Automatic annotation (TrEMBL):
Record flagged with keyword Transmembrane: no
SUPFAM superfamilies according to UniProt: Hemerythrin-like
Highest rank taxon of the organism: Bacteria
Name the record gives this protein: Hemerythrin-like domain-containing protein
Keyword Cytoplasm tagged: no
Hemerythrin-like domain segment(s): 105-212
Length: 217
């Protein structure tokens, strides 16, 4: 059950990055629904530790299976329809390009965001070229390290401005944990990870918490 919870958390994180990066207006509500499902699973795990009745476990698992089915088939349909309707309009292309709308108004941070986009675009290009495909994994590792350094500099800047950095740092650490885990698992096909997930991951970082926190500081 703990392993199922871990995998479901990863699945939810991927969903949240994609819908957030794509600009889905209901992304916060979707994220809150994920948190509620995970909280219910935690309560189930705690209860299993006290009551080991097979009948109870079957009933609880059946109930959770129904909740997840309804979430995936009914609630997730909303954002899949959104992605389909906006493909080629608001969504990023596989080859990332900097756009003025991504600027948050802090020149050096915008420059670093632009550089991260360029790094990610290079991973995608290299991964799809037979002559350079074997270099894509190392380039993805470089992207991870550049991102780690960028996050640290953002946190220092928030502290310099006298802003609270606790939530921003927690968000960064969560993003780094997932990035590191997924990069390690995608060595065989880093191009797919970069084009199908990290594009939205980076846009979620730039257009989400960064825009909110640096506008307020």
């Amino acid at each position: 059950m703990h392993e199922f919870r871990r995998l479901l958390t990863l699945h939810f994180d991927v969903e949240e990055v994609i819908v957030g990066g794509a600009g889905f207006a209901a992304a916060p509500a979707h994220r809150a629904r994920h948190r509620q499902i995970l909280t219910d699973i935690d309560a189930m795990i705690d209860h299993f530790a006290v009551d080991r009745s097979p009948a109870l476990r079957h009933e609880a698992v059946d109930s959770m299976e129904q909740v997840l089915f309804e979430h995936e088939i009914v609630e997730d349909t909303q954002y899949w329809e959104f992605l389909h309707d906006h493909r080629g309009e608001d969504m990023a292309s596989p080859l990332l390009e900097w756009k003025s709308v991504y600027a948050i108004g802090v020149d050096w941070i915008d420059d670093q965001h632009r550089a991260l986009m360029a790094d990610l675009a290079k991973v995608i290009v290299c991964a799809h070229d037979a002559d350079t495909r074997d270099q894509a994994g190392a380039m993805l590792d470089d992207f991870v390290e550049h991102t780690r350094g960028h996050f640290a500099e953002e946190e220092k800047e928030l502290l310099r401005r006298g802003s609270s950095v606790t939530e921003h740092r927690r968000h960064h650490q969560s993003m780094l944990d997932r990035l590191t885990e997924m990069a390690a698992a995608s060595k065989a096909n880093p191009g797919a990870l970069a084009a199908e997930y990290l594009t939205f991951w980076l846009l979620d970082h730039i257009c989400g918490l960064d825009r909110t926190d640096f506008a307020a500081s």
